[in-house]
Design a protein that fits this description.
With 468 residues, the protein is of the alpha+beta class. The protein contains 17 helices and 20 strands.
Length: 468
Amino acid sequence: MWKNYYTPTSLQQALELLDEFQPNARIIAGGTDLILEIEKGIRRPEAVIDISRLNGLDTIWLDEDERIHLGPTITHNQVIGSTLCRERAFPLVNACWQIGSPQIRNRGTVAGNLITASPANDTISPMMALDASVTLASVDGERTLSLKDFFLGVRKTALTPQEMLVDIHFPAMQPNQVGTFEKLGLRRAQAISIINVAVVLTFDRDKISDARITLGSVAPTIIRAPKAEAALIGQSFSDKIITHAANLAAEAAKPIDDLRGSASYRRYSVGVYTRLALTALRNGEEKDHLPDTPIMLWSDTDGHYPYRENESTPHTEEGEEAIVSIVNGEPVIVRHANDKTLLRMLREDLYLTGTKEGCAEGECGACTVLLDGVAVMSCLVPAPRAHRSEIITVEGLMEHPLQESFIKEDAVQCGYCTPGFLMSGASLLLENEHPTPGEIKQGLTGNLCRCTGYYNILKAFEKTATTS
């Protein structure tokens, strides 16, 4: 998959490695896109540089100029859990909440979503509506670009081979501003956007003084809807104005036909979802569907991975350095797994075959494990990431009451997906001992079952939650 895997302990060291191996190096933080690209042969990096445990890169802060900063390893779930973002960057929070599943949101980063540069990526639209910029760094220095200048086309950015995105920043929303994000997908979770819409409005008393409407998955890059924006400025909210602006937003879309939807369907949907967004903002209902305490599958952690503060670790093809971990409470040393995923290492080298490979794309949840206490899809985690980390697999849940509940409630048929459900459940119950039925469903959105219909699985979770 790769020849060399490096875990630097400083940003400067990461930049030096990037410069040394460019253009055949790739930065990895979450890897939810990169691992799939490598598996499919789209990329063959000579060096992968893991920055996921660098001190200080997973922070969110507000500067003296009222700009919010996101570090490059900030995950989608960390944005959702940020009080600052929920209060002053809600469109981004709303977008992050609708990405993938808890396991994906625990690894996938906002920076990675921007760098992948797909027009269907959900965080780009709200970032454009919030007028975000990015700071890029290399051994030669830093430069800052607006997102308009950063995105050059479908999966194309201005990032050079020796550069790393080190900061995302944008003005914090003010009391006279409102905003939201709406998305149409083929299902309620784990769905790529057919279209998405982000809206940020500024008011002068009861009149709209500024409007930003951005549209995703309807053009090669995220686009604005300038005529729709202009139609809102100077107006008060009314059904007539909302409908007019929504129709103009639909006219701005330039979609194509593909497997997820036709161009005409996409264009029509832009109008529908722009109207939904504007109506929700008028009625003050944009935050109603986002839970006050979302389920993260962080177990009893704060959702941040422990930093690596000792010497950097190269896992190279030539050296075959061992991966030293704690798995299910026992120290393990694994050799010759440096170019594998964590899923393959667990199954092929440690013979922990309870962790299943269902899709190998992070969609089914059968390979869910706890990485330093946080639920992740092991098919999307490089095996060297487990070095000096703690892993729990389903074999580590031998006495967990959820297993007994699965048996009593006949929650198992073929059983292939069961380990993933148990791992998500164990994390959920550590995070929230008595989850509601709705919270249980939140926690299981990353786990698919093809034969039980979920009803008995939910009964088993409810039984465990009420008796624990």
